[in-house]
Amino acid sequence: MTRSTFGGLDDPRADHARRSRGAWLAGSAAGVLLLATLGPAAHAADLNDDGGGDVSAVVVNGKRNASAAQQVEAIGATNVLSADQIQRNPDQNVVDALARLPGVSVSPTDNMGSPSQGNHHGVDAAGRGEGSFVSLRGLNGAYNVNLLNGVNAAQGMPYSRQIELSLLPPVGLDRIVVSKTSTADMDGDAIGGTIDFRTPTGLDFKDPMTRIYVQAGLAQLPLRYGLKGGSGLAQAELARRFGADSRFGIYATAYYGKRNFASTMQDYQAGQWEHAISDGEQGSNPVGMDKSDNLLLTSLNAQFTRGQQRRYGAIASLDWEGERTTLYARGSFARSNIDQEVYQKSVQADGYSAGVLRPDGLYQNAEDDGEYHYWFETSPEVSELDSFQLGGQSKFGRLTVDYNAFYSWGENSAPDHAEITYQTDADHDLNGPFTVTYRDRYPIPQLTPAQLARLNDSRLFLVGEDSGEFTSSHSEQRKTGGKVDFHYDVDGDVLRDLAFGAKYVESRRETSSRDYSGLNPYPAGSTLADSPLIDRTLGQTIKGVYPYALPIGDGAALTDLMARLSKAQALSADDFNKNTMSGTEKVSSVYVLANLKLGVVEVQPGLRYEHTEIHDTFWNQVTNPDDSAGASAFASNRTTYDFVLPSVHANYRPDAETVVRASIWRSYVRPAFFQLAGGRRTTLNPDGSIDITEGNPNLKAISAVNYDVSYEHAGASGTQVMVGLFLKDLSNYLYDRGNTYRAQAVAQTGISSISRPENGGDARVYGLEVSGRRQFTELQGWLGGLGVSGNLTLQRSKVDLKDPDTDSGMRMQGSPDLLYNASLFYDRDGLTASLAYRYGGPTLVSYRFGDYGGADLNEWQRATRTLDASVAYQFQSGLKLTLSASNLLNDYGYYRTVGRDSGTIPQLVSSGRNAFISAAYSF
Predict the structure, then answer these.
(1) How far apart are CA 881 and CA 875, in angstroms?
(2) Nearest Cα residue to 263 out of 541, 547, 551, 559
(3) What DSSP string describes 679-739?
């Protein structure tokens, strides 16, 4: 086997280093736990001011009013989600918790999962039954900055700058701060916003605190199929102050969770759909005919997925507070391991065209036969996000200096994907026309009893020749950096203070994917009924929809089998290295800002400068005219960006509970590494011309001018009101195509085609956010605990892709028009309860081009909705019990279609209801 020159990706020392890193952080937390237990006798927890110098001027953990006060005190539009608010709902990760905020939408995939190609963040990810990616104000996670206690979180995704935040459970957090505007002292590459996950510190607590939390849950859908549906989560946390005058503080927490999941999925084979009526058989859409009303599905994949997720991690911090100096060390470790199996019974009719010529000269397309397929794959995922930082604050009279050095590491890999296919022979295929009807959004093939009997007979399915496959994909990023901030208290009548600082971040990214296909684990003629991988058969793939018997088995055995076979297959240098890429990114920045006060009006002008240097290395695969391998080798390119980012924030504060804001600032987003240098394919054609597929180091960064105005009030009684308007004007728009490029027109001698990403034109997204909360404390007795809360987000977007092969003026990718949350709650005398409804509107997730594309045939994630309930009681002894349930209406978790208003070509995922019981004991 040819070895890559990037030995670090396969070096056992690299794996050892990753394990050591996690073990070190977990050991640190365990050590702090042990040290803290030697402290004084425990008392009930009570939080102090954390002195963070930002929106957290007053932090009272678990107090909703404190979060509201932080929002009002913030210089820009901000949402604060406290630990108590997070744990009041049956959310299994921080993504689903964030979805309850205005302007926030979530998705189970990174939007680019294509049909039947989902082993890395495609439809398979939707089958895991939880949100994974966060969008702010109509912009996906690539437009956001994610922080862990103010430290830049590493981005482990292979093809984008997003972070799969679902690996973070809803425990171990003090609060989540979502900043929707950016000041000069914040990173400039945040057009959407900045999300900061804050953990507690020992100095937050006056008295010793120890807390044990356990949760158990059941998932309805796997239980319906007789499979494991249980889940569990356990967490321990503590905080202590010690030393002279209690100047030292330690905090530590560790958690471990396991979740069994299952989902039913309906999918279609990639490309197996066409126009129902066309110019010529299987031809183009007739002029004047609505494309979305003229679709024909030519395959049906009925799927079932099951799996298990294990999440574990630790957080530890040590703080010291002196008279003029504070110092801290903080570390976090979070890991998610997912083992997932996907099973499919399908009818694939594409290629059996039986179009009929109509009197008007058009063709009525149809298929007169179809193939029966069975597919079994594993879809594993390993995600990790770690951070460590050292820092402090020192005061010298009117001058305050904050300093910090940090390290972050992230991984998002699909290490051991395996698959195998079985298929019936021609005598036992459909052997008749392929037609479907629709029921409850599902396409239903019309099968005779004999056709269904053949589909359900495992003895007729023969192992596919060369159908075995093993793929190992790895992606990671390491970030190191430091910053220093100076704050000088002028204390003038108008100029109150000045701030300036500098920051440096260097990141290293490595990705690889190696595929071993054409594997033959069994002799020709071996049947599915005889497969040693299968241990049981489900009576129906989707109960009440697809009565297709579905054999399921041992995913670990399939992985081991294909891994052994792959070791005997020697990859060429091209096959081994073609998906290997590494790169470094160095970002240097400086800023200056001033805080002015004109009576009750605060004004903060600021200016930031950021310089970025990117150096990428990738494989240039050369193919000779006779299809033999050419002079392939590693190549590299460089990219630089320079941005001056001015900002002005103005706040009018008529009283301590009210603020009216107006802001304007400039921000930008750098292209993803893959878009800059995703590998090059150079094909030398027999006619002497050359075809090239490559990344584009000359891509411009997306820049934006952002506007924001808002009114916010947080009354002492708990009443909260917020109304805000925002607008973002973007230039040099780039859309996400996952791991593919579009061919562009070329005018270079000897070059016949170049496929590479190109910038689009201008884009605009604007919207309205409204939120409110009201508890009727004026009512007598127990009625005073009743209340209502909710939020509404209206968004509109438009973009010019500058692509002649599609329509102009389309919606922006990942920007829903409507989002809202509504909740009835009760909160009095230790009893809390809520009934919460969440709605996410339709979202354009993928652009399509040409005759099979345009505004009518773009791919949309349709509206999702969920109704959740919870009830909890806090005992005076320190024990808190909670019962909760999610998705009470049993709605679809994921519904994606070709065309916004057409349901002809759908993907559907249903994960069922979930119920949980949890107990927390503080002492």
Answers:
(1) 8
(2) 541
(3) -EEEEE-TTS-EEEE---TTPPPEEEEEEEEEEEEE-TTS-EEEEEEEEEEEES-----TT
Instruction: Please tell me the distance from the alpha carbon of residue 258 to that of residue 311, in angstroms, as a whole number.
Output: 6
Q: Is the pLDDT of residue 380 over 80?
A: yes
CA–CA dist 161, 183 (Å, integer): 22
163: left (phi over 0), alpha (psi -120 to 50) or beta: beta
Instruction: Write down the residue that tokens 């701030």 correspond to.
Output: 499
Rounded CA-CA distance 798/809 in Å is 6
What does each C-alpha distance from 196 to 29, 51, 369, 406, 458 come to in angstroms?
Answer: 21, 16, 55, 15, 52
Residue at token pair 């150079």: 682
The residue written with tokens 């309205």 in the block is 768
Q: Give the chain's largest Cα–Cα span.
A: 95
Count the neighbouring beta carbons within 10 Å of the beta carbon of residue 687: 8
Query: Which amino acid is located at 867 in the chain?
Result: L
Cα torsion at 596, 597, 603, 608 (round to 10°)?
A: 20
Helix (H, G, I), strand (E, B) or coil at 35: helix
DSSP state of 733: -
Six-digit token pair at 152? 């830049």
The DSSP string of 611-657 is EEEEEEEEEEEEE-TTS-B-S-EEEEEEEEEEEEEEEEEEEEEEETT
Q: Going by C-beta distance under 8 Å and a sequence separation of 6 or more, which residues neighbour residue 866?
A: 837, 838, 886, 887, 888, 889, 891
Which tokens go with 257?
A: 């969770």
| Lookup result for tokens 């103010």 | 150
Q: What is the dihedral of CA 658, 664, 668, 669, to 10 degrees?
A: 30
Q: What are phi and psi of 676, to 5 degrees?
A: -80, -35
Only one residue has tokens 């102050």, namely 241
**Residue 27, pLDDT score:** 45
Tell me how many degrees the CA angle 336-340-345 measures, rounded to the nearest 5: 160
Q: What is the pLDDT of residue 677?
A: 84
Q: Where is pLDDT greater, at 669 or 744?
A: 669
pLDDT at 524 over 90: yes
In this predicted model, what pLDDT tens digit does every residue of 185-216 receive, in sequence order? 999 999 999 999 999 999 999 999 999 999 99
3-state helix, strand, coil in the chain (%, to 5): 15, 50, 35
Torsion of CA 180, 182, 188, 191, to 10 degrees: 30
CA angle 105, 107, 112 (to 5 degrees): 125
Chain-wide mean pLDDT for the chain? 89
Total number of residues shown for the chain: 923
Q: Among all chains, which residue has been given the structure tokens 């290295």?
A: 577
Q: Are 187 and 20 in contact (CB under 8 A)?
A: no
Measured over the CA atoms of residue 185, residue 188, residue 189 and residue 190, the dihedral's sign is positive
State yes or no: pLDDT of 61 exceeds 50: no
Sign of the four-CA dihedral 132, 137, 139, 141: negative
Task: Identify the band that residue 738 occupies on the pLDDT scale cut at 50, 70 and 90.
Answer: low
pLDDT of residue 749: 57
DSSP state of 700: P
- Specify burial of residue 568 (Cβ count, 10 A radius: 0-12, 13-18, 19+): exposed
Residue type, 393: Q
Mapping DSSP to helix (H, G, I), strand (E, B) and coil, where does residue 698 land?
A: coil
CA distance 402 to 483: 8
DSSP-derived pairing of the beta strands 894-898 and 859-861: antiparallel
DSSP state for residue 785 in the 8-state scheme: G
Q: What are phi and psi of 90, to 5 degrees?
A: -80, 50
Sign of CA dihedral 568, 571, 575, 578: positive
